[in-house]
Write a structure and sequence with these properties.
4 helices; 7 strands; three-stranded antiparallel β-sheet; alpha+beta; elongated
Amino acid sequence: MAPTLFPRTRTRTATDQEFTPEPWPEIGETWKPEGVIVTQRFLGLAGAVVLVYTADAGVHGTYYAVACLGCSFRTRSNDGDPYISSEQAGGEIANAHAAQCRALPRDLPTRPDDDTAREIVRRRLHSERRSDYDTTVYLTRFHLDRLALQRSTEWLEEELQRLADEQPEFLTAKPRAYGTGTEFTILCFPKD
């Protein structure tokens, strides 16, 4: 029996911990970056892999992102919706991109050192900061950064807490009003 490009896998949820990924036939190895759950992968026209992925389910459910490992295409939104809320919608976006992407495959992203990962988090937070209102930090806002970060949700929460302790004029932390956990808020730019 000839090997297939995409081995048969079962559909799973972000909380399914028993799944062991099969080797990627395109590269001959399994890549499972920390903090990322790859749910689907598509092959572009010239061999670049397009991923549908998620992270741990957040307070408001599971959301998905799509990224091409050959070009710079990344998205966490779907036709005007701020989030991709289903694996199927993510698959449709990834498939559409793979059908027209002519990027060659690149090496898999390497796991950055902690200082580089912290800088990625700081850049994301600064891009979310507004001049006229405070902004609640949702971990889903980091979905596009998850492939670059390659860190767990726990690491991300600890880093947010560390930043809140070190820079309370920029980021605050308080117990979540509903449920468990911590709510982080980016404070608006100070008014002169």
